[in-house]
Batch of 2 targets.
Target 1
Amino acid sequence: MTTQSMDSATAAVTGGRSTQGQCIGAMPKVQRYRTTPRTKVTMLADYCRTCVSRASCPVALLITAKSELSNSLLLHSHVLKKEDYVFYVGDVFDALYVVKSGSIKTYLTSETGDEHVVTFYMPGDVLGVDALGRNVHTSSAVAMEASGVCRVPLAQLEKLAEHSLGLFFRLVYGELTRDQQRLLMLIKKGAESRLAGFLIGLSERFEARGYSPREFNLSMVRQDIGNHLGMSVETVSRLFTRMQKDGLLDVDRRHVTIRDLDSLYKLAGLEQARG
Amino acid sequence: MTTQSMDSATAAVTGGRSTQGQCIGAMPKVQRYRTTPRTKVTMLADYCRTCVSRASCPVALLITAKSELSNSLLLHSHVLKKEDYVFYVGDVFDALYVVKSGSIKTYLTSETGDEHVVTFYMPGDVLGVDALGRNVHTSSAVAMEASGVCRVPLAQLEKLAEHSLGLFFRLVYGELTRDQQRLLMLIKKGAESRLAGFLIGLSERFEARGYSPREFNLSMVRQDIGNHLGMSVETVSRLFTRMQKDGLLDVDRRHVTIRDLDSLYKLAGLEQARG
DNA sequence: CGAATCCTTGAACACCTTCAACAGGGGTGG
DNA sequence: CCACCCCTGTTGAAGGTGTTCAAGGATTCG
């Protein structure tokens, strides 16, 4: 198992159909920034414990650990087409979502209208944490490819909270730490280090999910990478070319093969966790 | 009341003495990045409800609202000299701290040793939230001037959590949102917009605390501003000069007088909240 | 096959950094 | 009290990094 993308898992939950640009969450309550059509997507009854990404999903782990939860909690899967929205900024918060397959990105929309890609979510990641403190989402979440998510409604969430308050703190804390680390990186490092750090982050997340840390497919376009890392598409492209020249990695469109992980870590100014 | 700094409030809690470079928190458990001497600082028994910054302190507000809490919770004030630490990165988490007077900064230390100033805390702000999800602090907190903080130990914290879980989410969420907003700003805007945004942020926070939003003293040096905003000291200095030339504000060392708040908002690419 | 999107590459330019020098203030010690 | 020193802040000049503008190639999809 060397080459793979998260796409492979998608087939497992595909079964319902949905049309382009749909949204799972509640209907809009405040100003919209996007005008993608929104309707309810097909729902697929499913227990969380059948989740393919269970091993790296904190919610699934908690449910599995507590037998009283695993029998009482009925969660539903949703099938998303590319470009479908999970929620929009301003939506009332009524559920968290666990990514089961595919990949989701969230972005902020500033007052001046420009967007910033905040996070890329992989299977096992929990989506919607941004709204925990208030009751509206502060970011929008959209599928970058055909994806599946598992909806954890507010009511079920409260059931979970009774059993493990720490879960929520870990979730929110995880986002907080990640943001702060990225902030540090964006401020202190040059573009090449930032891209190297980004690739390493992906690599480690793939590895944590049982995939190869050295060969994977990017689920996002150059535009999103640049936006996320605060650089232009052209710079992303040039850096990939330079890194390839330097023998750090091979890039063919979305397909990345890391040749020299050590140097990549060094370039990012990070320490390698592995022995 | 036009000109003031947070210093004025400091006198209210000064009464104990402490020597340079002390730290309130627990003794170090992991690697230290700083070698400032650490001993317990003088403690000043005090009820939170006597806090000068109570109006803008979520903890104080909660305690005041719940009569059963206001009688059972005994919190202690700590007096910090300039450069005293509240906690170090790696310290075990055993309390949150509410800033009562003065000003505190927190910074991250990266693997390569360089530091990044994450947040400047004013009276009423809650410190130490970074450790809520784990049990160690991920940042260090140091007083930028003589300051007073109110310690809220873990045990008391749990008492508070029973009454209002939302409090914690608001706290953590606040940090999350602020970080994300700053991230967006750092990535999308140029240096001048970033500095303008920073000043507006300060202005709004001063105003929320009953001080003039147009005239205040910076509690941090240029170095810290630059570090926080991801630019060099020289750039900060040059931008202040330029803004002064453009009639946006007057700067005399730490003293800032905003002349044209509207233009400053425009420069930052923000919308003015006021009518 | 054409259209649209994505990606790459080149050249000029803008922004910010770095290096260097200096001015002013505040604190300390003689 | 004054001289000194260190820290903070300012300003100038040169240089680098990344952006913008422009054009062309590659891939996908209807």
Note: The first helix of chain A runs from residue 7 to 13.
Target 2
Amino acid sequence: MPELPEVESFRRIIEKTSMKKVIHAINLQAPNMLLKTTSAQLEKTLINNSFESTSRHGKFLFIQLKANGSLMLHFGLSGDVEFKKPGQDPPERFALQFHFEDDSSLFFTDTRKMGKIAIVEGMNSFIEERGYGPDVLNIKKTEFLSKAGGKKAAIKTVLMDQNVIAGVGNEYSDEILFETGIHPASATAALSEEQLTEIYKTMVSVIKESVKGNADREKLSHMFFLDNRKAGLTCPNCKSKTQSQTIGGRSSFFCKKCQKLYK
DNA sequence: TGACTTGTTCAAAT
DNA sequence: GATTTGAACAAGTC
């Protein structure tokens, strides 16, 4: 799933392949993914325009355009980015194609079509308007403690709440809590400041390492719960079986023996 | 065949 | 009123 590290790797692909080229045409195959933008507006804004710079906040990617604001992309559950040189076959299915002056193309693919596309004024105003919390890679310890501490909800739910911190999703939240040794269903308010600090540190290091490894799952295979999302697996620490439970409406995996439940 | 999965939003409940 | 929980969304997998 595209969580922060995946979105960051998409940003790098775009940065490396698609900047400052005039967009000759676009091909929108999934108009229902548009957010407060019409397909006519999208076309009018993008054609003859170009990508000036990229930025990211949590799981949201922004491409500042040479003129008329920024393009916002959200990858939903199955979004991806593919760049094709002139002559290379396009992907079988895609949501949006940017066709550049040199005949290369950038594709935004999304089989489940739950991503979002919009023309926005800029990243900062978009984030502020929607009230998203600071990006995982920018949040300070004190800010995390004051925003998360004292909440009644499960710690996993709080970590995934984009209004608290932007960028952590279901998969990374399980990994962070496994490495911290805290049960995902623990009430946040029941955790001490030391425990929240530990979660904060682990969260930052797990996300940083994944970003560094370009979200490449092979390089991150030592992160036990990232790829092994199943119950009944053998915990690498205590050799007991992993458990699953629905927390905050999302399936969670954990080791009951290594991760203590605080209520 | 149909239950399940995912992130986000919005509505309902506490 | 503020906070928390849950359904809905799309479409593919098992």
Note: The first strand of chain A starts at residue 23 and ends at 28.
